[in-house]
Write a structure and sequence with these properties.
Elements: H1 7-12, E1 13-16, H2 24-27, E2 32-35, E3 40-44, E4 51-54, H3 69-78
Parallel strand pairs: 1-2
Antiparallel strand pairs: 2-3, 3-4
The structure holds zinc ion.
Residues 5-6, 8-9, 57, 59-60, 62 line the site of zinc ion.
Length: 104
């Protein structure tokens, strides 16, 4: 699903998707969240939705990819969405890493 630095990371990773927060059975044993639209890794908080951003893999120590959060907000603001995080009408591709794929 995601290219990760090591097998420990891939075993403990929970991929956040559009309907995150609903499927607790799948993520109860996952200790790291991955947000594909922001390209961020994080330690989940109790609410099951937000997380504390981490910059290095806790197991192998590799530097994780740079966050694309600011770019995400900038692109959506350019499209006219002032509060994209809370806007259900943003284009579907911005809910995942699809928004970073270049159209050929
Ligand atoms: Zn690792």
């Amino acid at each position: 699903m995601v290219n990760v630095c090591c097998s420990d990371m891939s075993n403990h990773l929970y991929l956040i998707s559009r309907n995150n927060g609903n499927n607790n059975s799948e993520k109860h044993d996952k200790v790291i969240y991955y947000s594909s639209r922001f390209n961020e890794y994080g330690i989940p908080l109790d609410d099951g939705i937000s997380y504390i951003l981490i910059e290095y893999c806790p197991w192998c120590g590799q530097k994780l990819p740079n966050s694309l959060r600011e770019k995400w907000f900038a692109e959506l603001e350019k499209l006219g969405y002032e509060t994209p995080l809370f806007d259900d009408n943003i284009p579907e591709k911005y809910m995942s890493s699809l928004c970073w794929k270049k159209d050929d």
